[in-house]
Each structure stands twice: as structure tokens, then as C-alpha cells.
Design brief:
With 126 residues, this protein is mainly alpha-helical. It is built from five helices and no strands. The longest helix has 27 residues.
Length: 126
Amino acid sequence: MTPILIVAVVFFTLALIFYSVGVWNERLSKRLKHWHVHLFLMGVITDAIGTWLMFENLGYIKFTPHTVSGFIAFFLMVFHYFWASRVLKINDEEQLTNFHKFSIFVWAIWMVSYLSGMVLGIQRIV
């Protein structure tokens, strides 16, 4: 495993932590809060850095089911962040208390990509 690949894995794992804490705390508190949105953004940023480092390591984009699911998940995360920011700005109580449904959906799609990447990485090591 190259050093750049190790750093990419660290950033993907940071994205997992930030995004999961934000999404699941939002779900448990039953209301979208500003700090949740900040964690969503940190998840997006760390996922983007991890993705960029993977590209740097490989030198090109290899389109596989994992890559496609990863890009779909990333763009959903970006959309999720901007939509959450908008929901906070308009301060509609119904949207603030129901936003977690979309959050869980986006998180689940992102987890498919994260877990498939983990499985692929373990297969390469073994």
C-alpha cells in the first residue's frame, strides 16, 4: 500500500466519521441543527480529498461499479449539504424535523461505496 493510498483511506474514514455522526445525531435528535450541517460539510470535504488522493495514486479514473457508486454518493452528499443549508435558512419546522429521512438515504448510498471500497482494498492486500 503506497503512502498516498494510506492517507486517502484516512480521509475516507474521516468522512465516514463526520458524516455518520452528523446524520445519526440528526436522526436521534429528530431535528436538523447547524452543527449537523457543518459535519455534513466536513464529510464532503474529507471525501473529496480522499477521492482526489485516490486519483493521484492511480493517475486516471477507472470506471468500475465502485467508482460510479462513489461519484453518485459524492454528488448526493454535496446536494444533501446544500439542501440542508437551505432548510436551516428558511427555518420551516416540518422540513427541519423530517430532513433526517433524506439524510439516512444519502448516508446509506455513501456506505455502499465506502464498504465496496473497503472490500476491494482488502482483496488487493490479501
